[in-house]
Amino acid sequence: EAFRESGNKPEWMILTVIPVIPPDLRPMVQLDGGRFATSDMNDLYRRIINRNNRLKRLLELGAPDIIVRNEKRMLQEAVDALIDNGRRGRPVTGPGNRPLKSLSDMLKGKQGRFRQNLLGKRVDYSGRSVIVVGPELKLYQCGLPKEMAIELFKPFVMKELVARGTAHNIKSAKKMVERLQPEVWDVLEEVIREHPVMLNRAPTLHRLGIQAFEPVLVEGKAIKLHPLVCTAYNADFDGDQMAVHLPLSVEAQAECRFLLLSPNNLLKPSDGAPVAVPSQDMVLGIYYLTIIRDTEGSAIPFYKSVNEAILAYENKVISLQEIIKVRQSGINKNGVEEHRIIESTLGRFIFNEIIPQDLGFVDRSKDENFLKLEIDFLVGKKQLKQILEKCINIHGSTQTAEILDNIKSMGYKFSTRAAMTVSISDMKVPAEKKQILADAEATIETITKEYKRGRMTEEERYNAVINTWKEADNLLTDTLLNGLDKFNNIKMMSDSGARGSDKQIKQLAGMRGLMADTSGRTIELPIKSNLREGLDVLEYFISAHGARKGLSDTALRTADSGYLTRRLVDVAQDLIIRETDCYDHEHDEEIPGMWIKAFTDGKEVIETLEERITGRYSCETICDTDGSVIVKANHMITPKRAAKIVATGVEKVKIRTILTCTSRLGICAKCYGANMATGEAVQVGEAVGIIAAQSIGEPGTQLTMRTFHTGGVAGDDITQGLPRVEELFEARKPKGLAIIAEFGGVVTIKDTKKKREVIVTNNETAESKSYLIPYGSRIKVSDGDTLEAGDELTEGSVNPHDILKIKGVRSVQDYMIQEVQRVYRLQGVEINDKHIEVIVRQMLKKVRIEDNGDSSFLPGTLVDILEYYDENEKLKSQGLEPADGKQVMLGITKASLATNSFLS
Length: 904
What we know:
single chain; alpha+beta; Barwin-like endoglucanases; Enzyme I, Chain A, domain 2; 6 domains; six-stranded mixed beta sheet; 30 helices
């Protein structure tokens, strides 16, 4: 059809002439032995010419038919080899049995023409160097080495020199710059003011991997980077390198200033959480500042102002952490100056001087809280994150950037004052350790006895042993952590979120615990020593498995995750916000959307309702219990409104989602909701497909590969981590498949010799089906249960195609979002639902035609779902028979091949 409409003629499809590519693309070089090295293309062309001439000669001589036919076949093969070598039959090989590179080979792959030269180029006005930390910089600055700057800004400096009259013409200006004459530096200072540069660190996993800064000239040859942007770049200072790019045109500079400048990128595009959160030393300093030292029984000192208290501190009269009373004054809401006596620690008074006092941690409507400190609690990393979130929402990014810089300098100052250190005496091994281990040994002895008497199976014994050790380990850990003083250095580091975790403290001073062997099965002998006592030979050997596996996993994971991101980009790249609203007020009866409820796994909440509805548009007007409107229909649910909705006790909310958007091209802004990176409504033209792909792919590296299972236990052996995400997006049949009921009914279970039989009978339609279940897989249902269609009979993962077939599109969409979220959330990675929805929408956008009716579709072909609906509407309006089709789910690789772009 397309061919007929395109205006091509079939006879044009037969090549009568073959164009030859320019010699530069198929070079020939003389080697120093007088021989020539040539490009494969030349060989392939040469064979065609030889065969063509031979055929011509044979035809002139009137050779027999069979020879001519053979020659024609060889000519055809030669042409095929030129265009795509190895596509049919054996590839043509050159010397040493190496297949020759054909035209297609020159284009495809990472090294091909497209990815190497057209989509990725080397650029001028760029440089790279090692990065070092620059704690003295402001958030929007970076340090640029002088030599680098002079080279990057050369043309600008030359122009300015001529304009000032220091140099007479461009040529002399160039000489001055190259000789680095003293006048040049003043001009350079002038030129770089207000001219941002872009810094990028490879691998650029998401859009925060490239940001703009104002350069500050520094001595030396290293680029200075602000400590707070390290998280976004995933950079550290162990020798990482970064590249600098210079925006040249005025437009490019403006884009850098308004879109790429680091204070405008404080939020993660994947879940809208702040990304520039202080870490390590800064957190430690603030924690040290806001902790309270118990001084029971002694009188509380009194000071008339914070300054006086600071004076007392500097003269070592008081410490930062003891409670003092300070007289504060301020203008109250009646405009009168009022004095209050505030009780807190000096550290908290100091910290509050840099924090705005209107963040909502203290209820200011109450009179007694008039001058109360905004931050009157212990501040660790989590709390800093909350403070930042509120700052960004209330005060905007520019002011938050200032606050961040103040927190940074204060954190560094006081972590230096705290003079933290770690010594071996900080790791106190609990006295109860001996007893805990002895108890565990005793329990295991009883288990072994039971096993020997045949009261339990090998598997039960193994599980019991593992659980005993796990309990002992947890008990020891709790004892250990409770035994540590709150000013213990290691405890402070882990408690504040600066560095280290309970798990690591446990290994240092508790016991290292259970380890996995090479196959990933847990070894039932735990490592009873800790790193402070030292390990014996066997223990050391066992723990080497785990360490090595960790390293090799990381290396594999990085590559897998990169490839996943690439496929996700391929499938979602054409999804762009194209219009403001796909809902047409005149024609459509109701706003399209879907019901959303909190997503739980058993008792554990994986994602709350609040998280799922924040930043979306509501389909219905939602009212409070007293009837006041919280959010109107087709309006955005802001974080505040979301909190109110959840407070009313609503279980489910109908919101607009990407999956129900009816836009023809791309998505509409209302169905997408808020742009996570700004918290505002998304703008038309935003490439949400790419953002979604990056948000899902970027944390991919953090997901574990094969997470340690409870060790070869049947039913627990389901894929997790990155392979599970890939399995879902590729819509593969999962490993450890669950059997599901095809229709609702009542269950009866029979035991036969080899298998168990589960029979589902539907009383209304009187149909029944029996499912044979092999021993070893666990049955989830019991005799006499009533099931609904699509319920699982055994434990395991469900095949998404089955859900689509049995329960329909809506269920499979939910299933996909929930399963992907489960993997990420269990690893502690938060991603907003909408990014997963974008991908799922792309996977479900095709319909397989089963019966073409009066349409122009062919049965068995895949058609875009919206085209299918349009065509059917058209046919219905003309009174013709519409086409009938089933929605299908394509894996991302297939879906990307089915898109309309040739690049993917």
